[in-house]
Specification:
133 residues; alpha+beta; two-stranded parallel sheet; two-stranded antiparallel ribbon; 5 helices
Length: 133
């Protein structure tokens, strides 16, 4: 479990005792804990926050393992890399659900950088128009 989360078991145990874990190591430790619990549902809010690029693959691997084990993984993100891990996505802007569907359908919204959110700058997709009329 620790290896999937990207942690060296011996090093992590020693560093946890003296409370010198970095933010990224703490996040990896949390993921290892989640993997060990085998929950039915996991909510990950900005799972790439505070994580270096090399460790990001460990997070994605943990997400894949969770999903393979039948866990529903809910990701909250502004990142295309994290979004790519999803099967289904919801686009929420200023508390309003703008669009939902397969990840491939939602990706263009992120690629057109509709953040900061303004309903008028959300691109049309499949002939739909968004915004005040």
């Amino acid at each position: 479990v620790l290896q999937v989360a990207g942690l060296n078991p011996d090093e992590s145990r020693t560093r946890a005792i003296d409370r010198t874990l970095s933010g990224g190591e703490r996040k990896k430790t949390e993921l290892a804990s989640i993997l060990a619990m085998r929950p039915k549902l996991v909510l990950l809010d900005e799972p790439d926050s505070g994580i270096d690029v090399a460790s990001l693959e460990n997070i994605f691997e943990a997400i894949r393992v969770l999903r393979k084990d039948g866990t529903t993984v809910v990701l909250i993100t502004h990142s295309l890399a994290v979004l790519a891990q999803a099967e289904h996505a919801f686009l929420i802007c200023d508390g309003t659900l703008i669009e939902e569907g397969p990840m491939e359908q939602i990706r263009p919204y992120f690629e057109n950088k509709c953040i900061p959110c303004n309903h008028k700058n959300i691109p049309e997709i499949e002939g739909e128009e968004h915004g005040d009329e």
